[in-house]
Description:
Layout: H1 9-21, H2 24-31, H3 35-49, E1 54-57, E2 60-63, H4 65-90, E3 97-102, H5 103-110, H6 114-120, E4 126-131, E5 144-149, E6 157-170, H7 178-182, H8 186-189, E7 193-197, H9 203-210, E8 219-224, H10 227-235, E9 241-244, H11 245-253, E10 264-275, H12 283-294
Parallel strand pairs: 3-4, 3-5, 7-8
Antiparallel strand pairs: 1-2, 5-10, 6-9, 6-10
Helix pairs in contact: 1-2, 1-3, 1-4, 2-3
Amino acid sequence: MPAPPLPPLNALRAFEAAARLGSLVRAGDELHVTHGAVSRQVRVLEEAIGAPLFERAGRGLRLTDAGARLRDAAAGAFDQLRSAIETIQRSGGDSALVLGCPGSLLARWMIPRLPRLAGELPTLTLHLAPHEGAFAPSLAGLDAALLIGSGPWPAPWRVRRLAVERIGPVLSPGLPDAARIAALSAPALLREAVLHTASRPQAWPAWAARAGAAGIEPRLGTGFEHLYYLLEAATAGLGVAIAPQELVADDIAAGRLLAPWGFVDTDAHWVLATRRDDDDARFEPLAGWLAQQLG
């Protein structure tokens, strides 16, 4: 008699996260989806196996007997999968190091430097994985993560600080009225409609506090979901954006962007994060190379 088909993997993954974390919201955060998407996947799984997996307990959730049995089985299966994948990735001296990186850092900083990396660290093979949102504490599926941020960091991480983040306003010389805007003081600039991004709401106030305009609320114009789109808009002449210096340095050197107000340090750092229990010998050369490039 053939074995019954397994339910969809996405549904099992959503259930395992919700059961382990005890919350649809926290499961959604870990999986980078909405809690509604997790709930829909759990319903798909319940329909597939023909039994309820959760029941309401006040404002929270409680596993049914069937849910508890499936949680234990799913947790063991996913742990075995993760272990097998890590073993496969690390087998052989020429296996790729999987580096997670926010899309904006990947597109505007890391990719242009890959030829230099290949020449200076010829034995290191990277597999770059674009990532949006918070990285999982386990760095699931990754060997390391390159990101800009500040602590506190997840307890399982070892964090190597590479450079202090520096930010500043930038604009295209093709922006209408560019000469007038570029001559404005920091307080006057904040009274103009400036471009901003939902992923870095603190960027303009952080710059203002260090540029002699503390306490002045920026006048926010067009907003963008991600930093990459914000910088593309600035390069296209749509307004003044706030940006990490390293992500716009090449554009400034090529004359595509201007930075008349300069850049200031923030409390954040560029960091390379790895798991504390991972002593892969490739991390130190990579961290050193990244720090050199950022310096």
